[in-house]
Amino acid sequence: MEIPTNTDGPLVVVVGGGFGGLAVVRALQRARARVILISKANHFLFQPLLYQVATSMLGPADIITPLRQTLSKQHNVTVALGEVVGVDLSTRHVLLDYLNHRAEPLNFDYLVFATGASHNYFGHEEFAPFAPGLKEAINATTIRDRILRAFEYAELEDDPAKHRDLLTFILVGGGPTGVELAGAIAELRRYTLSSDFRRVKPETARIIIVQSGSRILPSFHEDLATSARRHLEKMGVEIRTGAKVTQVDAQGVIVNGERIPSRTVVWTAGVTPSPVGKWSGVPLEKGRVKVDSHCEVPGQPGIFVVGDTAAFDLGNGKFLPGVAQVAMQQGKHVGQVISSRLAGDPPPPAFRYFDKGNLAVIGRKFAVLEAGKLRMAGRVAFLVWAVIHLIFLGSPGNRFRVAGQWLWSFVSGQRGSRLIMGPGGAVPLIDP
């Protein structure tokens, strides 16, 4: 299979249009090479703000930028809408599925996988229909529909005893996504919806974080996690730690043997890497592809893996986490490695990750920040969080829209994307 390109030179195939894939492509801007970016979606999605789409603060278009627009001025790159469903390292080709599921082999000289991760239900895939995760825009709009429908169904329910079940929101997982989502739902019920209904009081809605570990935000320092917990509890969020979910169905969840009725459950408990390693037969570390100091697969020259799918050993038995800043830094490094090889120059120094810190926001005025020895919780951390997220949004238009919506919500308490779009949602308890 041949994909038309604007330049000559070796063919670099980059799989994945997220943080890591875009970083690779941009680092190849001046390389004498043909670059093909293969993506299942025609857009770049700013995942850190997906929870705000799920809670009506933003619309999907506010955090999405078309890939062709993003790369329009980089003339050595071609965007291919499709999905890689296999790879043959011996013949150096990937199997590209596109146009009505037509799979064709695409040869390459260099290959970079930046395919991210998907939801991890830890062997319980049957939970998925009742507890969507939050990785794609469609997940966010599905969750938004379910949250808003829950209030709509409760408004029509004659039996007040059933309101509690309809207005119980359960988040399975107490990492940054679960914490941020809980804070956003708490503010949605308290400010945005508080005066909109007549038969129910949205502020009485119940929000529960279920965390299997001993505390929420396990990747943060314990003091910050404690501050976050106190703030969430002040907002009325229930937090259950050391709690194991053994069942999720249309009626709710079972936690440590206790049935908690709920019509809106969201899975924020973890992710699993893409199946690249299974295709290639290379060494794996918990499903992630082991890579060397240049993010290259050992024994496979010219094959690189970055981001969530890469297992980069720090030398002490620990591996780099699957977060956006790791993917961006690894992607930039891999682009530099390939560029140096194409130019016949010495390779850059081995990849070293610079940890710029962790951030998690809870509501409109509170965040926790950890960067080296610096630890901060409160409004200043929130301002830092806001500035950083605006800087890394995909385009100036996105930045202006998001900043405007944040300002309006801060002043008025209202949210601009309270739309129910899908055909289904939370299961009503209204008797037929």
Describe this protein's structure.
With 432 residues, the chain is of the alpha/beta class. It has 2 domains: 176 residues, FAD/NAD(P)-binding domain (3-Layer(bba) Sandwich), CATH 3.50.50.60; 203 residues, FAD/NAD(P)-binding domain. Helix content is 30%, strand content 26%. The protein has 11 helices and 25 strands. It has a 5-stranded parallel beta sheet with strand order 5-2-1-9-21, with helices on one face. β1, α1 and β2 form a beta-alpha-beta unit. α1 runs parallel beside α9. The longest helix has 20 residues. The protein is globular. The C terminus is likely disordered.
SS strand fraction: 25-35%
The biggest beta sheet reads:
5 strands, parallel
Quaternary assembly: single chain
CATH topology of the largest domain: FAD/NAD(P)-binding domain
What proportion of the residues is helical, as a percent range?
25-40%
Number of domains: 2
Kindly report the average pLDDT value. Answer: 92
Strand arrangement across the biggest beta sheet: 5-2-1-9-21
Structural class: alpha/beta
> Per CATH, which architecture of the largest domain?
3-Layer(bba) Sandwich
Compute the separation of the termini in Å.
Answer: 56 Å
- Tell me the overall shape: globular
Which stretches of 5+ consecutive residues score pLDDT under 50?
425-432
What gyration radius follows from the Cα positions, in whole Å? Answer: 23 Å
The first-level CATH class of the largest domain is given as Alpha Beta
Please give the number of β-strands.
Answer: 25
How many DSSP H or I helices?
11
